[in-house]
Specification:
single chain, 2 domains, 4 helices
Length: about 120
């Protein structure tokens, strides 16, 4: 099950790098929670009405292919990277995360090295 933020934002514990380090991050209204938020925290946020359950189908189209990635917040970029299997290494700042995505997908994410919007699929 997936969960979406209904409050202005929520602060949750999530993994921030491949070494398993964890930190508190703010997730804005309308964004989905990362899948590794501790169950107890999810239950508390549900009980307080700060998040809602959404179907997996509702989250399948959460990434607008027409929206440039630099318009997403850092938590959203981290989630996008996780959803698209991008290794962020130690990237924590927006320019670093965008650089890691570009290194994986090419300048625009479609693997052809051109500009534009990310299409969300790795090149072979």
């Amino acid at each position: 099950m997936a969960y979406r933020v209904t409050a202005g934002y929520v602060t949750v514990e999530t993994k921030i790098n491949e070494r398993g380090s964890r930190a508190q991050v703010d997730i804005p209204r309308g964004a989905d929670l990362p899948g590794d938020v501790p169950r107890e925290q999810v239950e508390t946020l549900l009980r307080l009405g700060r998040i809602e359950e959404v179907s997996d189908e509702a989250t399948a189209d959460k990434w607008d292919p027409e929206k440039p990635l630099d318009k997403y917040t850092v938590p959203q970029l981290k989630e996008w990277a996780s959803d698209h299997k991008v290794d962020l290494g130690g990237a924590t700042k927006k320019p670093e995360i965008l650089a890691a995505i570009a290194a994986t997908f090419g300048a625009d994410g479609d693997g052809d090295g051109g500009g534009g919007h990310l299409e969300g699929e790795k090149s072979s």
